[in-house]
Amino acid sequence: MGGAGKPATEEDAALRWAYRTMQTIRCFEERLHADFAAGKVPSSVHLYAGQEASATGICAHLGEQDYFHITHRAHGPAIARGADLKAIAQEIWLRAGGLCSGKGGSPHLHDARLKLVGANGGVGSGAALACGSALATRHRGDGGVVVCLLGDGAINQGVVAESFNLAAVWSLPVVFAFENNGYAEATGTAYAIAGNDIAARGAAVGMPIARVDGADYFAVHATAGEAIARARAGGGPSLVEMQVPRFFGHYEGDAQKYRAAGEVAELRRSRDCLVAFRERVLGAGLLTAAELAGIDAKIAAEVDEAFSTAAAAAPPAAAALLSDVYAGRI
Amino acid sequence: MSIKSYRAAIREALEQEMLRDPDVILIGEDLAGGAGGGGEDDAWGGPMAVTKGLLGKFGRQRVLDTPVSEAAFMGAAVGAAAAGLRPVAELMFCDFIGVCCDQIVNQAAKYRYTFGGQDRLPLTVRTTMGAGQQLGSQHSQVLVGLFTSFAGLKVVVPSTPYDAKGLLATAIRDDDPVIFCEHRLLYRMREEVPDGSYTIPFGEARIVEEGGDVTIVALSRMVHVAAEAVHALRAEGIHCTLIDPRTTVPLDTDTIFDSVEATGRLVIVDEAGPRCGMASDIAAIVAEELFSALRAPIRRVTPPCVPVPAAPNLEKLYLPDAARVMAVVRELVQR
Ligand SMILES: Cc1ncc(C[n+]2csc(CCOP(=O)(O)OP(=O)(O)O)c2C)c(N)n1
Ligand SMILES: [Mg+2]
């Protein structure tokens, strides 16, 4: 693939995967935004548009044995980890066929089979659980690593500081990957984070830290790759801070008055990871415009299908109310 | 008097108490919103828009937005209360008690007792609760029974705008730590509420309906569910007394006892699960005291013992509704 007539290489495949993943997330979230505004989405949603390069650049390095812990801003990371698009959509629509059988909803996407863990409703709580996943994979000796996504808001939770220390004390194979989108709900990082430096807090426990432009897929890919490789090689925890733009509100329905006028338009103009990616791969002749357009069209159809499937799908059966509370009988 | 929503009534109580006492301060996440951003201040006015406008009136000295750090700001509120302020801290969802349980349970609740009564702890924790918005297991619980179980806390569960305003004023003026539980599905409920400041004493139940056949005790939003059942049952010739305790600590047992003595039948409607909750608690208190007055077993109408599901059809099945209350009452009067 790649340029006309060139044989497919692993690198081509990886690039196409990255583009397809980011574009799928974007298309999914833009479409969800429109459907939400039209009153078609039956639950509360936090959209990931703008942040695609971060989950995608990370997941490019994750294999079967690796864990990926995610937050309430869950759709994009779940897509990047390879969760089924229809099952994600059905969970958002709270249907029986959803990833969590309709019991969790948008902020709780989870796919145990993929080691996609937890989308967590408690800000910061995932940091500690990620230490546990790391303990388990190291105990088994299966070479697994753990990446824990966290928002900028989470850096101020006590459990996150405790988890940094624990991960360092036990030298756990975990990467704390912060998506700094500038806000926790309506409050800006410049107010909420004293020193306004997330990475520095990781440095305090002696972890290697890195700061990267989270709107640049290639930068995320390289930086996250280094931290993940270090963890895999037994080098212990690291922290990666990614500066990412958030294109929509904290949740759908958020009037976003706390943002400067024109802020989002400017972010879309100057910090769109998909625009940057297209420019780079086209400029270097790695992929062609026709190929990208083909991918885009295919994705639009897939997202359409996932949404129409979800809208038409059956809700959970009444008996589901009482199931799944315990693994065994009680 | 004017028509006010539950949300506006709570806001008015906060404002009037802040005007009345300069030591009343508000602490919580996005109470104003907009700090550190390039846009407007007071952009949210609280996650549920309850505190909207208070920043403009009282400034950031008294309306303190916090980082997402419940343990730290709740602990700071406890410390500030012990040091003489009258903080009102907001825990956005009561489910997040998990993050700051130590500060509320081990610190605030026991502060006075542990130190031999030397201190007052005039802390109010406002929090929100309840299912019905498809928010799932970590944002829908009712934990009133849990709060009630910790000696040292007072617990308020207003079911109407009028009660919310008067009880919040009482909570803020109280010298003990109070957990004030707002039901999110009630924020839009509207009724006549006095414009001026007033208080409602803790430990005085409200008798919502009177009838001689069955006593129903219900809390928070369940008061409205039970009221719907009571009205419908009246058409069937069954007459119930409906009691809203309004506070679970202190609990107005006298009003409940008086009614159960007259009816001999008790149903408790609660939005928390059946184990170790307010329904079990009130049932036990009544059974111990009035066993011989009972003409039928005490019945609890609660959700099942499961976390709150997100899917709307499951959530509807989870929540007690008027039909379930009616079925239980009918069974009791047949005995
Ligand atoms: C323990 C806890 N406190 C508060 C909240 C409410 N809440 C939900 S999302 C959020 C902001 C999180 O900000 P950040 O970590 O930056 O993630 P982002 O939403 O920007 O992706 C808050 C405060 C919560 N879910 N859990
Ligand atoms: Mg953020």
Q: Which features characterize this protein?
A:
heterodimer; A: 330 residues; alpha/beta; Rossmann fold; 6-stranded parallel β-sheet; two-stranded antiparallel sheet; 12 helices; globular; disordered N terminus; B: 335 residues; 2 domains; 7-stranded mixed β-sheet; 5-stranded mixed β-sheet; 37% helix; binds thiamine diphosphate; binds magnesium ion
E-strand count of chain B = 14
Fourth CATH level, the homologous superfamily of chain A: Thiamin diphosphate (ThDP)-binding fold, Pyr/PP domains
Helix content of chain A: 40-55%
- Give the overall silhouette of chain A: globular
Largest sheet of chain B: 7 strands, mixed
Number of domains of chain A: 1
> What is the β-strand count of chain A?
8
Order of helices and strands of chain A: HHEHHEHEHEEEHHEHEHHH
Number of helices, counting only DSSP H or I runs of 4 residues or more of chain B: 12
Which regions of chain A have little confidence, pLDDT < 50, spanning 5+ residues? 1-5
CATH topology grouping of the largest domain in chain B: Rossmann fold
C-alpha termini separation of chain B? 45 Å
Which secondary-structure class do the elements of chain A indicate?
alpha/beta
Q: Which fold name fills CATH's third level, the topology of chain A?
A: Rossmann fold
What overall geometry of chain B do the principal axes of the alpha carbons give? globular
Largest β sheet strand count, sense and barrel closure of chain A = 6 strands, parallel
Rg of chain A computed from alpha carbons, rounded to a whole number of angstroms: 19 Å
CATH homologous superfamily classification of the largest domain in chain B: Thiamin diphosphate (ThDP)-binding fold, Pyr/PP domains
Largest interface: A-B, 50 and 44 residues
